[in-house]
Amino acid sequence: MLGSSPYDRIGSPLEAGLHQEGRRLTPQRRKVLELFENIGSGMHLSAEDVHHQLLEANTRVSLATIYRTLRLLVEMGFLHELELSEGGHRFELSSRDHPDHHHLVCVRCGRTEEFESENVVEAGRKAAERNGFELIESTLNVRAVCPSCQ
Ligand SMILES: [Zn+2]
Ligand SMILES: [Zn+2]
After folding, report:
1. Distance from residue 144's CA to the centre of ligand 2 (Å)
2. Is 149's pLDDT higher than 90?
3. Superfamily per CATH, domain 100-150
């Protein structure tokens, strides 16, 4: 991922968010972001997962608010959105410690495994170069059926 993460500019995402023009990290947004930070990178949560975990932590927020908050955190560059099959969406923390990686996604249960591939990154880079595009990221989502769903 090139230049889309606020981590490149300021150390902590929370600090970075506080300095974003016009868009403050409200306590609610901060809670959602903290949840992702606490579970660490490499986890892919749906809006329902986030809702459930916040309820367990005694934070009552409607699912609609969580959808809006997640979308906003993606726009602000804190989270990365992953579009799955059947209209499902998962979110993960954007982090420079966790650069370009790819996803193997079970179309039945949504289980998501990560993998790295220099070839994919390279193919994206070359295609962008050939067409004069400025590369932002090259990631691959592989749709599959996991062992327990087969
Ligand atoms: Zn991932
Ligand atoms: Zn599965």
Report:
1. 8
2. yes
3. Ferric-uptake regulator, C-terminal dimerisarion domain (3.30.1490.190)
